[in-house]
Design brief:
CATH superfamily of the largest domain: Aconitase, domain 3
Number of domains: 3
Oligomer: single chain
Strand order of the largest sheet: 12-11-10-13-14
Distance between the termini: 55 Å
CATH class of the largest domain: Alpha Beta
Bound molecules: FE3-S4 cluster
Shape: globular
Radius of gyration: 20 Å
CATH topology of the largest domain: Aconitase, domain 3
Order of helices and strands: HHEEHEHEHHEEHEHEEHEHEEEHEH
Length: 365
């Protein structure tokens, strides 16, 4: 892989050991993927923030890297706790302590402690064609598809390395030829709300791994967010929608049709119970518009709403900095949840071993 003079100096350790390690990682990644060179990035989004997902090994890794500073705007995925209000929940002191340690390491590196999976709603909004290095599948799919930015699906570690170097290897989704649609999806299902879009994405992610181009749908921003998140459960990093997304390319596509039966199938597949302890909304984190809609609904039910801390002024009772998947719900006495997100339903069942009901919000509330 071609390296500039400055990149070679970084690799030789002339700028210090920390950035050298980050560069070694990026160069290895580039060589495995046959990248021609590196490309500058506008921002990074780092995942692997919750103690629940990275554990003690993750803390040791971050301790080692915490002396490095990031060179570009870098935002952070949700942590395992609400960093201010964790006392309201049954979380062990040791979990809280370790989580705070992780956050401090990220802070030392110059990373914005945003703790949200919707960085594009809180100020990290890439431009069309901009190269970025984001980890967090839902945000990667949204950025590639809706914004027209260019990101591979980085791991937490590679996103961090790219943030430290300010560059990423030029391969995969950074190249125009890999962004063409391969599958034409005619949607004949009657999609009425966010959960239906979530179910649509999940169905495609479970059965296909080509870039889909949808026809016959005109989703809102929140529905695009839901579709991005569930498509990200599989290997898909981008979608196109005729008349909606900025990039429409690729022809001679394989054709399929998705009707009400396929959507219904997803609701059934992802639901394992009728009784649950709480309703969880906000996977991905709720936008202001969703919060506005939720505020209008009067319900006696126990609803936990997850969103970015920036929205606290508008919805004080929400839970910030964390989410239903990366917080230790299973250790907090919760056995079952209901959600309008296919992604949350999938991971709460498979990662946290919870009982789950997946249904549209109208039905749940
Ligand atoms: Fe975000 Fe957590 Fe869902 S990180 S996309 S709310 S699983």
């Amino acid at each position: 892989m071609y390296l500039t003079k400055e990149e070679e100096k970084i690799l030789d350790g002339e700028f210090g050991e920390g950035i050298q390690k980050a560069m070694e990682l990026i160069v290895a990644l580039g060589e495995i993927n046959e990248a021609e060179r590196l490309v500058s990035i506008g921002s990074a989004q780092v995942s692997g923030v919750s103690y629940k997902t990275i554990g003690d090994a993750g803390i040791e890794f971050l301790k080692d890297w915490s002396k490095c500073k990031v060179r570009v705007l870098t935002t952070l995925n949700p942590a395992g706790i609400d960093l201010e209000n964790w006392k309201k929940f049954r979380i062990s002191n040791s979990f809280v302590e370790k989580q705070k340690k992780i956050i401090n390491y990220f802070r030392e590196m110059g990373i914005l402690i945003s703790c949200t999976c919707t960085p594009y709603l809180i100020g990290n909004l890439p431009r069309f064609g901009e190269h970025i290095a984001w980890a967090e599948s839902s945000a990667v799919v949204f950025a590639n598809s809706v914004l027209g930015a260019r990101s591979n699906r980085e791991s937490g570690i590679s996103a961090l390395a790219c943030a430290i170097v300010g560059k990423t290897p030029l391969y995969g989704m950074h190249l125009k030829e890999n962004r063409e649609a391969e599958l034409l999806v005619k949607v004949s299902a009657d999609l009425r709300e966010q959960a239906d879009y979530s179910a649509l994405g999940y169905y495609i992610a479970r059965h296909f791994n080509q870039i889909p181009r949808f026809t016959n749908i005109t989703p809102t921003l929140d529905e695009l967010k839901a579709l991005s998140a569930s498509l990200g459960i599989g290997a898909i990093n981008m979608f196109q929608i005729e008349g909606v997304t900025p990039e429409i390319s690729g022809d001679g596509l394989e054709k399929i049709e998705i009707g009400d039966r396929e959507i219904e199938e997803v609701y059934e597949e992802l639901s394992s119970c009728e009784d649950y302890d709480i309703i969880c909304v906000g996977c991905p984190h709720c936008s202001l518009e969703e919060l506005r809609r939720l505020k209008r609904i009067k319900t006696e039910k126990k609803v936990w709403v997850y969103t970015a801390r920036q929205n606290k002024w508008f919805f004080e009772n929400a839970i910030f900095d964390t989410c239903m998947v990366v917080s230790p719900l299973e250790d907090m006495g919760i056995e079952g949840i209901a959600t309008n997100s296919a992604k949350a339903a999938f991971y709460c069942r498979n990662l946290s071993n919870l009982d789950v009901k997946f249904a549209p919000i109208r039905e749940l509330l």
